[in-house]
Amino acid sequence: MARLIDNDTRLIDIDFGPLTTLTSRDALAQQPTGTSVGLNGVNQLIRADGVADVSATTFKLGSFVQYSRIDLEYMTMNNEVVQPVEVNVQRTSPTPTGTHENGNNYLPLEEYLFVFSRPLNHNVLNTSNLFYAACELMGLDRSQAQGSSVDLGGVDAGLPTHEQTIYAERRRYGFNGNFGATEGNGELAAGNGVLASIFPTPTLESVTTWGTMSAITGPSLHCYRVVVFDGQSFPANELVFPNVALGGITTLQYPPVNITFVCKDPKYTEGEYLVRLANAMNSIPEDGPTA
Predict the structure, then answer these.
(1) Which residues contact 173 (CB under 8 A, 6 or more apart)?
(2) How many Cα atoms sit within 13 Å of 62 on the Cβ side?
(3) How many C-beta neighbours within 10 Å does residue 85 have?
(4) How far is Cα of residue 126 from the mean position of the Cα atoms in its chain?
(5) Does an H or E element contain 134, and which?
(6) Which of 28, 174, 178, 220 is most exposed, with the fewest beta carbons within 10 Å of its own?
(7) pLDDT digits over 127-149, tens only?
């Protein structure tokens, strides 16, 4: 919701609740075999791989998508427009916290934040195994052709453009061998038959941001938090990864996230406002392609 600070200033506040995931894998299995989710961030889930009552897909167990819609319809009704001049992203922890036993440390853990002026196609988002790969393409022009196999924008609508991306962030986490106990670093006895590696928490490796901070006209902002987790999946056979011979379990708690935009009135003319509104809402996924 947007909060009025003074005649020319609004705060637009977006919150994602905390979420905990528990992902397990049986001995000799190359893919995870079970997962569960908890805490109040569950109420914002629109996809949680492996959790039957949230999503039918089991592509990457432990991965999830939270969604928050910010209703700004009153702004559209009043022909209001605000220009973000500053964004502030807050977390109670810089990384997820938890434990990671006998897992895959080769592939990174990734977290995305997206704030769009139009929604993604939630039907495709909830069923496509290619959705997570598309995340790194969303929000810059010409990053994904229309009518692609990842039809996240609707029929031939394409992914959100740079103009339609108010803000995006990609964080990459990794399990650093210096902060864990493994057979390789000598802190676990080789061939102990119980643990090949155990890590207390991932570390933050990089943060990338993009988007236009373009003027917001309403009627809604569509906000997504996407976590891509491969920590109990192994890309090769069990002869390459000794951890596969032992059952694995990863428990991670993702902290709450707040995104706050400080916005000013750009004092657009009526024509500038209409152009901005058209750019923000073009290619809405419902009912297929738009002009």
Answers:
(1) 95, 96, 108, 109, 110, 111, 202, 203, 204, 205
(2) 28
(3) 12
(4) 13
(5) helix 131-134
(6) 178
(7) 777 788 888 888 887 655 444 44
**Cα distance between residue 53 and residue 58, in whole Å:** 12
CA 272 to each of CA 74, 81, 166, 277: distance values in angstroms, whole numbers, following the listed order: 19, 10, 18, 9
The Cβ of residue 33 has, within 10 Å, a number of other Cβ atoms equal to 15
Query: What one-letter code names the amino acid at 243?
Result: N
pLDDT beneath 50: ranges in the chain: 145-149, 155, 284-291
Please state, in angstroms and rounded to a whole number, the distance separating the CA atoms of residues 57 and 65. Answer: 12
Written as six digits, the tokens of 224 are 């997504």
The pTM for the full model equals: 0.89
Residue ranges of E strands in the chain: 2-6, 9-16, 19-25, 34-38, 45-48, 64-71, 83-91, 97-101, 109-116, 165-174, 181-182, 197-199, 203-210, 220-228, 248-254, 257-264
Q: Residue 250's pLDDT is what?
A: 96
For residue 283, the number of C-alpha atoms closer than 13 Å in the C-beta half-sphere is 25
Q: Are 174 and 203 in contact (CB under 8 A)?
A: yes
pLDDT of 2 reads 64
> What spatial distance separates the first Cα and last Cα of the chain, rounded to whole Å?
29
**Going by DSSP bridges, is the β-strand pair 257-264/9-16 parallel, antiparallel, or unpaired?**
antiparallel
* Token reading at 290: 């738009």
Amino acid at 195: L
